[in-house]
Design goal:
alpha+beta; Pdz3 Domain; about 325 residues; 5-stranded mixed beta sheet; 3 domains; single chain; Leucine-rich repeat, LRR (right-handed beta-alpha superhelix); 6-stranded antiparallel beta sheet
Length: about 325
Amino acid sequence: MHDCFRFAITLSLVVAPVFAVAGELATEPQVVAWIDQLGAEQFAQREAASRSLAAAGRPALASLGAAVLRDDLEVATRALDIVRGFLASEDEALAGDAEKLLEAIAEGPDSAVSGLVTGALDFHHRGMTEAAREKLESLGAVITEGFLASGHRGLHVTLNARWRGTSEDLRLLSRLQGVRLVGAFGVPLDAAAVAALGRLRGVESVQLFGTGIADDQLAALAAKLPATRIDVRKGGKLGVAGQPMVGPCVITHVQDGSAAGKAGLQIGDVVVAIDGRPVANFESLTEQVGRHGPGDTVELEVERNVPGEQARRFKSAVTLDGWE
């Protein structure tokens, strides 16, 4: 069985043994025959098969998914056209299952119509962008627009303690246009949620702090988004800011009430080591803090320079907060 079709079957698409077509009772073998007839030599036969399968609706969907994966371009494109028509169905269950099926095909191995499948989904999603954004925001997602370090402007989507949605709701992310950054902070992510993130073509940065993402899921996500910077941390938060990629690690901001603030860190302090490991710059600090979870205690070695006073070094034990 083709890998893509095997995955599509897991989407709970139920193929009933019998169903009504044009007022008559049709059997499963008839559906198979119609699929084969999509590649018939006679144009009239191909058209008749297309009409029959379109009329069959949801029960024929899984068989149409298998047909989209065939090497026969005529059969594949006709099957895709039928499934694409289901996307506009007034039957929300049918439209939803058709979308899931096309997503499964788009995520799987290349087929004769992979590009057409992706294009069909993109066109479908463009017409649903506004509704998707409203739904995500109603569930607690924070969606803003701004620039990234690359200079590209786009949408920034943040999921934090306010997020009340499910993994199914995260499928709506792919309907947004121009998503450049996605951050999940303290939001548990399962395999379905990670798969939804993997559909975000064009996203430049994904920040996963305290999500509990498994190693195999992270590897799968990285494979889907090879050009995306994926920042994964266990969830520990120090609560400071600094200049990235510039050494030494000078603290430029200390968040009120944060772990760093409670430990007495100040603006201008230079973090030179954490748990005995050297800290070359702010990126190094955030990477090392990211190996720890909320409630973990780390030892910072700090250099403090106060005008008119002698520079001094000291060590401070800091109990990390969690991202919200």
